[in-house]
Design a protein that fits this description.
By secondary structure, the chain is of the alpha+beta class. It is 22% helix and 32% strand.
Length: 109
């Protein structure tokens, strides 16, 4: 099962892009009321063994979804972009973001 299909189990009112886009799936998180476009892609392993995810400040997605063994971590991209710009960062770590971003959401698997 693909990462998009696994994550879709957490959504209602699901929509998919009609053409190639920077977001993969849209919908409403269960027990929530906001409709969002999500960037949901598998992380990749860096040469040093760390897992990473690339992103673009030009993305049309509202949220970035990261999959971990026992949970999903959802980051607000607007808040992330503001942090990257303010701190003049090219590379950020999820563990650091958890402590500095306000909107971050966690969904248990």
């Amino acid at each position: 099962m693909s990462i998009i299909n696994r994550f879709s189990e957490n959504l209602t009112a699901i929509e998919y892009p009609k053409e190639k886009s920077s977001w993969n799936i849209a919908g409403i998180l269960k027990n929530q009321n906001g409709f969002y476009k999500f960037d949901v892609r598998d992380m990749f392993k860096m040469p040093d063994g760390e897992f990473a995810q690339k992103g673009s400040t030009k993305s049309k997605a509202d949220k970035m979804v990261l999959e971990f063994k026992n949970r999903w971590v959802i980051l607000d991209l607007e808040e992330l972009y503001e942090y990257i710009k303010k701190e003049d960062k090219k590379k950020v770590y999820v563990e650091d973001l958890i402590h500095v971003l306000d909107w971050t959401m966690y969904l248990n698997k």
